Amino acid sequence: MAVLNFVDFFSVSVQRVALSTVVNICKKLPSECPAPFVEAVPKLCDLLQHEDQQLVESVATCLIKISERMCQSSELLEELCKHELINQVTRLVNLNSRTTVSQPIYNGLIGLLVKLSSGSFVAFRSLYELNITSTLKDVLSTYDLSHRMSSPHLVDGNCNQVHEVLKLLNELLPTSAGDQVNQVVLDKQSFLADHPDLLQKFGMDILPTLVQVVNSGANICVCYGCLSVISKLVFLSKSDILVELFKTANIPSFLAGVFTRKDHHLLMLALQIAEMILQKLAEVYLNSFIKEGVFFAIDALLMPEKCSQAMLPVFSGIQPSFDSSRKSSAREVQRCLCYAFDTMSSSSVPPCKLDKDTVCNLAKYIKSNYFAAELLESEKGMTDILQNLRTFSAALSNLINMPVVDDTPVQHEEKFYSILNQIMLKLNGREPVSTFEFIESGIVKSLMHYLSNGLYLRDNVEFNGIYDHLLVLGKRCEVFAKLFLSYSDIPVEDLPLSVLIQKLQSALSSLENFPVIPSYGFKQRNSFATVPNGRCVMYPCFRVRFVRGEGETCLSDFPEDVLTVDPFSSSDAIEGYLWPKIFTKRTENGESDAEALEQMESPPILLPPNANSSQGESSGFIDSMSTDLPGTQEDEANLSQFASEQVHFREANSGETMSLDEIDIGSAVQERQFPTGSTTEMKTLCSASSNNDIEDSSPRLLLYLEGHQLRRTLTLYQVILQQLLNSENEFIQWAKLWSQVYTITYKKAVESKQDDLQEHTYLEWKSSILHKIIAYKQYMAFFSSMFACKLASDLDKSSPTYDILFLLKSLEAINKCSFHLMSCERTRAFAEGRIDNLDNLKVTVHSVPQNEFVSSRLTEKLEQQMRDTFTLYTGGMPSWCNELIASCPFLFSFDARCKYFRLAAFGPRRAQLPAMSRNSGASNDRQPIAGGLPRKKFLVWRDRVLDSATRMMDLHARHKGLLEVEYNEEVGTGLGPTLEFYTLVSHEFQKSGLGMWREDHSLFITSKTLPVADSGILRNPFGLFPRPLSPTSDSYNGVQFSEVLKKFVLLGQIVARAIQDGRVLDIPFSKAFYKLILGQDLSLYDILSFDPELGRTLLEFQAIVNRKIHLESTCVENPTLKLDLCFRNTMIEDLFLDFTLPGYPDYVISSDCNHKMVNLANLEDYIEHVVDATIHSGIVRQVEAFKSGFNQVFAIKHLCIFTEEELERLLCGECDFWAFNEVLEHIKFDHGYTASSPPIINLLEIIQEFDYAQRRAFLQFVTGAPRLPPGGLASLNPKLTIVRKHSSNCADTELPSVMTCANYLKLPPYSSKERMKEKLLYAITEGQGSFHLS
User: Fold this and answer.
1) Which of 246-260, 537-551, 587-601, 722-736 is predicted with the least confidence, judged by mean pLDDT?
2) Would residue 1301 show up in a list of annotated catalytic residues for this protein?
3) At a CB cut-off of 8 Å and minimum separation 6, what does 358 contact?
4) In terms of Cα–Cα distance, which of 222, 370, 357, 204 is closest to 284?
5) Measuring CA to CA, how many Å separate 1140 from each of 774, 1182, 1255?
6) Best mean pLDDT range from 241-245, 636-640, 828-832
């Protein structure tokens, strides 16, 4: 008390020391006599109002410790509440509080409120009166929306603030059920009964948020806490309050989703909630329970055999839980979920409160008391909507089975259109369609069967006969696009496609149960892994017995009994260990050759699990990290627990040790120097480049675990985990997981070239068909990618989740290709005479925004998984993460995919700093680089930027650290000069005369409004696309093609380096070029995106060719149509076109003797040759050169999870400047300026008045780059800071200056707005091009 009495007289630094003394005393408080310390509480409460964060945290720690000692006594807790303690703590936990505290202290303060509310009626009443639920709602909202936040603390564990909040919410709803009834509980219940308005306010704030948290994919412990709060809320609320509360959330649909879980604790709570609702509001909610599928779910709990495959899959989910719902600790008692939110701790492990039959008994009670017997009959139990939708589904199925003869395809399409239209009218009708009705109707499966012509359920699509399907698939997709996307008079959100996507997303959230696997089951201990290469690891190992398969004669028995196996070993690694020990090939003398083989073989080289890339599967970064695991460690700063230990990979064949981040994660692309010689060398390289990714990965052994073959793309840990998750138990017993002995059976693999043959067959088919049917060639890439790509391996193809994912994937592809599909439909209509005017070929398509396809639930699960540091470093990621993000990347938000991409391409250490190097860290030498990434500084000459860039890439393209730039004879270095260097290089690549791009001299400008560095660059409103290079010549207008290819190699290196280091480029590639970077095929319709005039003309020529083919195929004399085989009233021959590429007279596209001049007979050949030269053969060398340079930095295949628009955003940042209504939130004012200072108001008005070029110049002046990073001004880090520039002279004579490394603008207080604008424009135009001290 002496310290506290005189603390006000000390300085802040001394106060901190004094309070640390009090903290140490409070940590040693005796539990038997804490009363004397109560007199210190008033002073401590006063100190909570202090502005110093460190002081406040010390005071909070003292109060937390005091409350822990007093929590057993209600009288002492009541005494604590008399000194404004509740008010002060409530103020601190408010997210908008001026005083911020660290996360552990914040959690401790919420825990303090839990203890006070539990034992004190005064605290309970005060919290309600202070509207604590509003604050708790905000905290829970951060859990649901955390995939949009950068906060790293939202992880599962005992210190999780969400767990503490749920404890507090449970205490604020007192029930006597299961609790020891005491006077405090009775007083609380009486208070709520007397104040129903407070209870209703509680429910209105909390209920919708709890539903969102559960639906977002929360772990089982959080779900239990949320359901517990909802159950208590329903119990305490009267009927009229419940009716109002349930208007904010669809409780029947929510409960139907909970019934898909396995855990009996969750099922019991859901049944209790359902029973209480039916007891209080049976007449209101009985029909809703039937409509949303709650009745069917309860019935299926009792008789799971009645549950159809399409119905909500009770007991089929795979969401895991763990015997430890908290982080593993030797001193922590593992408790049942029944006690997860009890405030009283126990030293023993109490038994579960639920008996084995409790769930079934309650389900029987609800069924017999609330549901009529006639509902058990399937027909009477269905709603009218469900019956109607089933009728439409059956009609679609009949269409699939109906044979289509030559004279009925149009009628067939019309029937499809009619059924689709009726389905959409029903889905978008006045009476809403529930998720249960939508799923149970079979509409999803019927749509997929019809759209895919039955192909989507096949394991491997046979490409030999797919041509028969191709025309059918194309026409069906055209009809689909026409119905879903051709509306121009309704908002995008009301498009039929948007409505269908929303239904599918809702169904996916209800059905999917992909697991989030935290690393709590890994006790960090040293173990020795015998398999695959005998070394120590820092986590448990599996105990495995290897047994020869029954009937296997070519292999011998494994000589040893039980071995320890690294859990993150791939099948390849295990095979490499087993093969020399079990191979029994007989020599001529009849003796076993195993010993000789064992001596001859080098130590096994561990192939990455994704080496099997020829099979079209992408295992992602986790599998490739799991090829080898930590052997040595180095201490790293700022990384907690296991993450603080540097992971190394050892190459078994060389003995060399490499850092995790020095390995090109997940990449099989070999680094190579690009040859710049002849065309022959180029073709050789292109061939090698395409073959390097496809290694000979034929397995020698087939491995089986419990009868299931081990997939080569999964680690042993992932295989075992997947089998456990597919079991009926939602809990994973970690102790048993590591102690159990697993039996792996091995057999000799039979060599098969089936996959290769199928691939060759496909390629031969593709080449033979494309020259025959031009009209449908654009479908090939679309359909082959749709059917070749596998979804998550642990999904049964008969499950409704598989159908939903596949339909979403198909709809996303149709939406992306909607312009192509609609254009093709228009062209076909012209060919058949339904359209007479070529101008009518133009189509207007309203595509659905890409973010409509994002699943917030799956995004949150991926974010949760990526926040687990141990999992990232060891490779314990569930297989669905890698497989779904490869096959359906659109399901995840752009931010989540960016994080995943950085992990996959660069490893965990570099991924720890998202956009750090783009915006901040590289500039500030006073701050250490996160993760300890090394920097490389490189000297650049401004007058030879491209030469400097070439030398930089030659020396450092493969360098894994950050590259920074300093200019010759300039003192500036760091982020600002580096960003400007990438901007200058971008502009150099856009200059005319390089021979790289399709040059349109009418668009050549020299802008006077831009800095000098921008003058003389090409501006194409449609973006840059490679200029076609003729295969028959080596130069054009003096430009050597070899030099052009060198520049494309350099461009690939620069682009990859910019992405890796997080730099912004200022180079406007066309959408079509981004598609080439992503490895996508281009078609005739893509030419419209970068050369609309050429593309439109070719499209009209194609329509004429199609009409000619149609006339010839129908054999019907139609003079009107024949007359229309002209191009805008001109005969094709009268156009006097020759077989040279339009715009490039030296590029001869055909040397055939019949191809001198273009006529109607050879017009089809002309179109094909022009398209080929423009987007295929004429640019293939440039594209391969670009990819070759790119792959020297990191594997370009990692970019495939992005769309073209997203890749542009990733590389070039935001196109727009910033939203001025949010500008004040993202700018920091300091050193004499505030948001209301007149100079600041003037500056913001001036920026608003700037034109586009001036804003770009302003951004480059302040940050070093003319574009903002992805995310806009909010992502600029450090924040844009504007400070007052002090000067001895008149401010009007001063110029503004900047520190680009810190985004720091020093602005003099000019006397007028006009003077400020004049000086600012002078600075941003004349102050470019050098970095000196200011």
Assistant:
1) 587-601
2) yes
3) 264, 268
4) 370
5) 20, 20, 43
6) 241-245
Q: How far apart are CA 549 and CA 562, in angstroms?
A: 17
Q: Determine the Cα–Cα distance for residues 1118 and 67; give it in Å rounded to an integer.
A: 95
CA distances from residue 516 to 37, 228, 865, 898 in whole angstroms, order as listed: 45, 22, 6, 19
Catalytic residue among 71, 477, 817, 1301: 1301
CB 830 within 8 A of CB 841: yes
Q: Scanning the structure block, which residue is given the tokens 């073709």? A: 683
User: Which tokens in the block code for residue 193?
Assistant: 């009964």
Cis peptide before 1278 (omega within 30 of 0): yes
326-354 per-position pLDDT tens digit: 333 333 334 677 877 776 655 556 777 78
Phi, psi (deg, nearest 5) at residue 977: -60, -35
Taking CA atoms, 1310 is separated from 171, 507, 1213, in Å, by 58, 60, 32
Min mean pLDDT across 453-457, 1044-1048, 1223-1227 is at 453-457
**For residues 915-935, b (16+ Cβ closer than 10 Å) or e, as one string?**
bbbbbbbbbeeeeebbbebee
425: three-class secondary structure by DSSP? helix
Predicted local distance difference test score (pLDDT) of residue 1153:
75
Q: Rounded to the nearest 5°, which phi and psi values hold at 1073?
A: -70, -35
Q: Would you state the pLDDT for residue 646?
A: 32
pLDDT at 927 over 50: no
Side-chain-facing half-sphere of 814: CA atoms under 13 Å = 27
DSSP conformational letter for 352: P
How distant, in Å, are the alpha carbons of 9, 267, 469, 711, 747 from that of 758? 85, 48, 17, 20, 25
CB contact at 8 A, 1171 and 1098 = yes
Strand order in the sheet with 1304-1307: 1227-1230, 1280-1284, 1304-1307, 1297-1299
User: CA nearest 214: which of 504, 513, 501, 520?
Assistant: 513
CA distances from 843 to 414, 486, 827, 1022 (A): 20, 9, 10, 19
Task: Enumerate residues 6+ apart whose C-beta is below 8 A from 1000.
Answer: 1018, 1020
Q: What is the DSSP letter of 1317?
A: H
Element (H, E) at 535: strand 535-537
CA pair distance 396, 419, nearest whole angstrom? 7
Alpha-carbon distance of 303 to 472, in angstroms, equals 42
Cα–Cα nearest to 784, from 1107, 473, 408, 1158: 473
Per-residue tokens: 1179 = 């640019």
Up-side HSE of residue 1244: CA atoms within 13 Å toward CB?
Answer: 21
C-alpha closest to that of 715 among 885, 892, 529: 529
Q: Give me the sign of the Cα torsion angle 215, 216, 221, 226.
A: negative
- The DSSP output letter for 592 is B
Q: Which of 1217, 1226, 1293, 1214 is nearest to 1250 (CA)?
A: 1217
β-bridge mates for residue 1018, sequence order: 1004
Nearest to 1070 by CA among 1137, 1142, 997, 1129: 997
- For 97-144, how does the pLDDT look when each residue is reduced to its tens digit (9 = 90+)? 767 788 888 888 998 899 888 888 888 999 999 999 998 988 888 754
* Residue corresponding to tokens 């490409």: 463
Distances, alpha carbon 501 to alpha carbons 212, 484, 1028, 1224, in Å: 19, 11, 40, 36
The DSSP letter of residue 793 is T
Torsion over CA: 526, 529, 535, 537 (sign): negative
Cα 850 to Cα 859: distance, rounded to the nearest angstrom: 14
Q: Which two tokens stand for residue 975?
A: 């982020």
